[in-house]
Design brief:
Strand content of chain A: under 5%
Largest interface: A-C, 59 and 96 residues
Radius of gyration of chain C: 26 Å
Oligomer: heterotrimer
Distance between the termini of chain A: 50 Å
Number of strands of chain A: 1
Structural class of chain A: mainly alpha
Chains: A mainly alpha (340), B mainly alpha (308), C alpha/beta (547)
Distance between the termini of chain C: 31 Å
CATH superfamily of one domain in chain A: MetI-like
Helix content of chain C: 25-40%
Strand content of chain C: 25-35%
Largest sheet of chain C: 6 strands, mixed
CATH topology of one domain in chain A: MetI-like fold
Shape of chain A: elongated
CATH architecture of one domain in chain A: Orthogonal Bundle
Shape of chain C: globular
Chain lengths: 340, 308, 547
């Protein structure tokens, strides 16, 4: 019987027995493979072929092959072109003098007016094309503000910790207790906003309630990168704390921020449409998908297609951004890349 | 566990105070005449003006005003609407309807979300998984109100399967379609979350060890993969209960459900700010409580949190 | 026990080939592998990462990753070919015929179930729970060396230390008394002394139960000490197998020879080549470059509700490092050795005591002086995957310190980077690559090049070679040694591995729970350790007593 039958690990280590190795009771051959079979290679030889690839280049290479990415990128490009140059896509200027003629009210599509007319006799296709700009503006600028504001606050909170972090965490909790739409409704009701309704008030409102989410995500990413050895190493090289945040921590925290920002761009477009639909978003005279859907719902039963067209454009645009975010997430996912 | 609960409650108090303060501040302390804001810009009599001033204690310093607002909120003294109805009475009627709607939506997203998510996760990369992924993206991309109108129009009007709008009594059966619309976006999120979580746990070391112990595949899936994967999902569902109460504003408007969202929608349309502020205040309480419940659930499900 | 004339092997691997299908085409992880495990015998498979050692063993229990499959040969368990057995058959075999003890104790227990539950379900699945499963579970945990098993069964994995978790995993692996136990690096994540206890215990249990063990390890010393038979794998092939002691003392294949000469636990003391420089420094005459006296670090640990607890990570530590020599600080996890490194690097403030570098106290340096100090003392960290910024090319990584300190212009910096790469034996073309394209050892070389860029006088190596395979580890240690001789560098070498210390250090400090329990020259420490703790550490080095 071995002597450590009553071995108690809590006692710490006993004087170790001399371990002399074991000898089998069976006969064991000593086999040596011929050297030709596995020629010895240099220890840890350096690969010198192939093009050098940064992480971004690698992500780009895998992204390029993804159909999801190609489709969404093309669609987003198309949307941007439509928003920038709507006149390229329709000869009718819906803001023009004779854009809407009541005599055409609710008439179905016909050549030159493929989507028909709305209640006021305006060409639906032209309105949808011209409505792209407002939606895209709201999406892009809300995202920009949210990324800059939320990103900066989240990065500071995550990197410095302490009281900055505590205050921001509580502040974030407070804003989280008020969901986007609900909070936006209240803000849009304020006299300052109600009387100056425009694309910009919607952007500011959405940004007010959108930043905490991005701050939270940035904070998480920064905390993860903050304790990495390369950050410690850069400090030991003499880099100041703030510079190590800017030069090492932030670039390494970008991936989740980019993904969330892309997806959120779509979400903000939906939020704008929802606010417009509820009557507290863009002012009625601004041409937007949300406003058109809101108008169309009043006569949904008689003319359902009028709702379908702006809704379709809206959904496809939002889908493109969400799909892009998804594709980028896959490409930047460190877990997926680790094996390489 | 008890100390964990107390700690979480202690943390939620400042959140509650902060959120109500935020709402109150936004409405009463921003530039412009608060009475003007309260009236929604409509002309009003001196009597109304005086009544409003008294109700919101606008003659008193800001902190006193806020303190009284908080007291009123907590004692459910929510004032009256322009039409002279007690806001608390209106809320009392509307709240159960919305609660029913939200619970139904939660059930739909929980049950279908988890089932679809688990199947997709277990069959990662197969056709079912791809279909579910694309479908979830589409659901997230299409605004809820569009989905609502389409479903109302197709199922309610064209196919005439259910009544397109809900009656005053708002029975469970009538609420099914609105609940589906309300829960659909969250359903998509639940599916994606469950799927990711299942995929992650499927390749976890402890799952391999469980297999190596000689457990049947069925037991490995239910006891080790599913149990662990559900932790983030249940947490999401809990947090979403609050979100659903807020999302109800759109759904209830479309289906004419006499709930809290409808009340809020009408109040906004009529510019009845006092009602809006009161209802939002109550909703904030609901969110805060929902958050607390989630924390408790989380601690219950994950022993690591409980002892942290 | 009586022996039959021709005993039947319990496990027989015949011409085994295992292939993984990847997006870049099939990868042949194992090719033409042959070896046998006799009943009750312990067989060790030794090899570096990627040699196919774990893959071969996992195939025997049907746990290959989803994209891997047996593409040739046979796996005979008790005469039955299980290389393509059904999932159903494997469920029958696993647990009560073939058990497993996995590698990482932290991730192999399900965090949401109690330990007792995880043992019990093993028994139930194999129909061995009996009438009183609770008592059976306690017995099994007690057998695995867990004291107070009833209470332990009621706890969750996160309440266990690493060593206790590994005991629980051993309990699970042996719960159903399997005939074969696959132990996949069962102790590589643990401190040496804990490793020794656990392996001793595993030995005892398996010899009592008559269980055959297939031990997978990267440590040839450990293999030779614990197994009757050693199988050496290299690049997916078995290059040599035979009786353990025979392999160790009389290796035939060049790869095995290389492994033995590189293994820190087996290699001789520091070579004569190094002694020369040490001799030049006459003790007492040379001014110490770094002097640490009464250094203490106390951390506040938050306990919720504003309660704080004090934890003394470093307790009154004092030692000196003479210029041009290497001092190793050795200790197990939690001994405070890395905390000392961080304070020397001025990345962490000390609580009390003094750190003097070249006659000047650090810790209260002003910004300008600290900046100058940074130039003279450089770190190399443990994790080769974490110590280089993945966003920076190798060129930018090595150039960064030059840029921060405003040295040279871009042309001269480019030249300097090429020089530095050459010094660490990396081709100059590497400078356009990114860390993710390099192996662990290569990244560690880059980290060394970066540390050398400012021509520092001292380098703090915080577990700098711990994460590397033995051969690569030996290579990096040799590089550090060479650089020391060329440039007269001084090293503060933090490690948990006494075996490595013997290869590199002139002086050694042994730390236990924040205190330095013993210090002296490497020869003194290894030849005549004074403290019981040092003796325990030395005794725990696997294989040391075999050569």
């Amino acid at each position: 019987m071995p002597e450590n039958q009553n071995f108690n690990p809590e006692d710490g280590l006993q004087m170790s027995k001399v371990r002399a190795g074991k000898v089998s009771k069976y006969k064991i051959d000593h086999y040596v493979a011929p050297l030709e079979e596995t020629p010895l290679q240099a220890v840890d030889s350096v690969k010198e072929t192939g093009k050098p690839l940064s992480m971004w280049a690698e992500a780009w290479r895998s992204l390029r092959k993804q159909p999801l990415f190609i489709i969404s990128a093309i669609m987003i490009l198309a949307v941007i072109v439509v928003a920038a140059f709507p006149q390229l896509f329709t000869s009718i200027d819906p803001n023009g003098q004779n854009a809407c003629q009541l005599e055409y009210s609710n008439e179905p599509g016909r050549p030159g007016h493929i989507m028909g007319f709305n209640l006021q006799g305006c060409d639906v296709y032209a309105r949808v094309i011209y409505g792209t700009r407002a939606s895209l503006l709201v999406g892009v600028f809300t995202t920009l503000i949210v990324v800059i504001l939320g990103g900066a606050l989240g990065a500071l909170a995550g990197f410095y910790g302490g009281w900055i972090d505590a205050i921001l965490a509580r502040l974030g909790d407070i804003f989280f207790a008020l969901p986007l739409i609900l909070g936006a409704i209240i803000v849009m009701q304020l006299p300052a906003f109600r009387e100056n309704r425009s694309v910009w008030t919607v952007i500011v409102t959405l940004a007010i309630f959108g930043w905490p989410q991005l701050a939270r995500i940035t904070r998480g990413a920064v905390i993860e990168a903050r304790d990495a050895d390369y950050v410690k190493a850069s400090r030991a090289l003499g880099l100041s704390k703030f510079k190590s945040l800017v030069k090492h921590v932030l670039p390494n925290s970008l991936a989740p921020i980019i993904v969330v920002a892309t997806v959120n761009l779509g979400v903000y477009i939906v939020a704008e449409a929802t606010l417009s639909f509820l009557g507290v978003g863009l002012p009625g005279e601004v041409m937007s998908w949300g406003n058109d859907i809101s108008l169309a719902q009043q006569q949904l039963r008689s003319n359902p297609m009028m709702l379908m067209w702006p809704a379709l454009f809206l959904s496809v645009t939002v889908l493109s951004f969400i799909m892009l975010g998804d594709a980028v997430r896959d490409a930047l996912d460190p877990k997926a890349r680790k094996g390489a | 566990m008890l100390s964990f609960m107390l700690k979480r409650i202690a943390q939620l108090i400042p959140v509650f105070i902060g959120a109500t303060l935020l709402v109150y501040f936004l409405v009463f302390a921003t530039p412009g005449n608060p009475i003007e804001a309260l009236s929604g810009g409509k002309p009003m009599s001196d009597a109304t003006r005086a009544a409003l001033e008294a109700q919101y204690n606008l003659d008193k310093p800001f902190w006193v005003q806020y303190g009284l607002y908080l007291k009123n909120l907590l004692t459910f003294d929510l004032g009256t609407s322009f039409s002279g109805q007690e806001v608390s009475a209106m809320l009392g009627r509307a709240f159960p309807v919305t609660a029913r709607l939200a619970i139904l939506a939660l059930l739909i997203e929980g049950i279908f979300g988890i089932i679809f998510g688990v199947i997709a996760g277990m069959r990662k990369g197969k056709w079912f998984d791809s279909t579910i992924l694309i479908a979830s993206l589409i659901v997230i991309a299409v605004p809820t109100f569009v989905l609502g109108f389409v479903l109302q129009f197709v199922v309610g009007v064209k196919l005439d399967l259910v009544k397109p709008t809900v009656s005053g009594s708002a029975t469970w059966g009538e609420l099914f379609l609105p609940a589906l619309v309300l829960g659909l976006v969250s359903l998509a999120y639940v599916v994606r979350l469950t799927r990711t979580s299942v995929i992650e746990n499927k390749s976890a070391d402890f799952v391999r060890t469980a297999t190596a112990k000689g457990l049947s595949r069925r037991r490995v899936i239910t006891v080790h993969i599913l149990r662990n994967s559900l932790i983030p999902v249940v947490t999401f569902l809990g947090a979403d209960l609050g979100g659903l109460m807020g999302g109800a504003i759109v759904t209830e408007g479309i289906f004419n459900v006499p709930g809290v969202g409808h009340l809020l929608y009408q109040a906004i349309q009529k510019g009845e700010t006092p009602t809006v502020v009161a209802v939002v205040g109550v909703l904030v309480i609901v969110f805060v409580v929902a958050n607390l419940v989630v924390d408790m659930l989380y601690a219950l499900l994950d022993p690591r949190i409980r002892y942290a | 026990m009586t022996e039959t004339a021709t005993p039947k092997p319990l496990l027989e691997i015949k011409d085994l080939a295992i292939t993984f299908s990847t997006p870049d085409g099939p990868v042949h992880a194992v090719r033409d592998a042959n070896f046998t495990v006799m009943p009750g015998e312990t067989v060790a498979i030794v090899g570096e990462s990627g040699s196919g050692k774990s893959t071969s063993a996992l195939a025997a229990i049907g746990l290959l990753a989803g994209n891997g499959s047996v593409s040739g040969g046979q796996i005979l368990f008790d005469g039955e070919d299980i290389s393509h057995a059904s999932e159903k058959r494997f469920v029958e075999l696993r647990g009560n015929h073939i058990g497993m003890v996995p590698q990482d104790p932290m991730s192999n227990l399900n965090p949401v179930w109690k330990i007792g539950f995880q043992v019990k379900e093993t028994l139930k699945a194999n129909g061995l729970a009996g009438d009183n499963p609770k008592q059976r579970v306690s017995q099994i945990l007690a057998d695995a060396g867990l004291p107070n098993p009833e209470a332990r069964a009621n706890q969750y994995p996160h309440e266990f230390s690493g060593g206790m978790r590994q005991r629980a995993l051993i309990a699970i692996g042996l719960a159903c008394r399997p005939r074969l136990l696959i132990a996949d690096e069962p102790t590589s994540a643990l401190d040496v002394t804990v490793q020794q206890q656990i392996l001793d215990h595993l030995d005892t249990m398996t010899s009592e139960l008559g269980t055959a063990v297939l031990l997978i390890t990267h440590d040839l010393g450990l293999a030779a000490e614990r197994a009757e038979k050693v199988v050496v794998m290299y690049k997916g092939r078995v290059v040599e197998y035979g009786p353990a002691l025979d392999i160790l003392r009389n290796p035939q294949h060049p790869y095995t020879k290389r492994l033995i000469s590189s293994a820190p636990s087996l290699s001789a003391q520091r070579g004569d080549k190094h002694e020369a420089i040490v001799d030049e420094i006459v003790p007492g005459k040379a001014e110490p470059l770094l002097k640490i006296s009464n250094l203490t670090k106390v951390f506040d640990i938050r306990k919720g509700f504003g309660r704080k607890e004090k934890f003394t990570a470093v307790d009154n530590a004092s030692f000196e490092i003479p210029k041009g020599t290497t001092t190793a600080v050795v200790g197990e996890s939690g001994s405070g050795k890395s905390t000392i490194a961080q304070m020397v690097l001025n990345l962490l403030d000390k609580t009390s005591g003094e750190i003097t570098f070249d006659g000047e106290q650090i810790g209260n340096l002003n910004e300008k002086k600290l900046f100058k100090y940074r130039r003279r003392v450089q770190p190399i960290f443990q994790d080769p995957y974490g110590s280089l910024d993945p966003m920076y090319s190798i060129y930018r990584t090595i150039e960064e310190p030059l840029r921060i300190h405003g040295i040279g212009n871009s042309a001269s910096r480019q030249k300097k980077v090429a020089e530095l790469l050459d010094q660490v034996s990396m081709p100059a073309s590497t400078m356009h690559r990114f860390p993710n394209e390099l192996s662990g050892g290569q990244r560690q070389r880059i980290a060394i090049a970066r540390a050398l860029a400012l021509q520092p006088e001292m380098i703090v190596c915080d577990e700098a070679v711990s994460a590397l395979d033995v051969l690569v580890q030996a290579q990096v240690l040799e590089l550090l040694d060479e650089l020391q001789r060329e440039m007269g560098l001084t090293y503060l070498f933090i490690t948990h591995d006494l075996a490595v210390v013997r290869q590199i250090a002139d002086n050694v400090c042994v730390m236990e729970r924040g205190k330095i329990v013993e210090q002296g020259t490497a020869d003194q420490i290894f030849a005549a350790p004074k403290s019981q703790y040092t003796r325990n550490l030395l005794g725990a080095i696997p294989g040391a007593s075999l050569i």
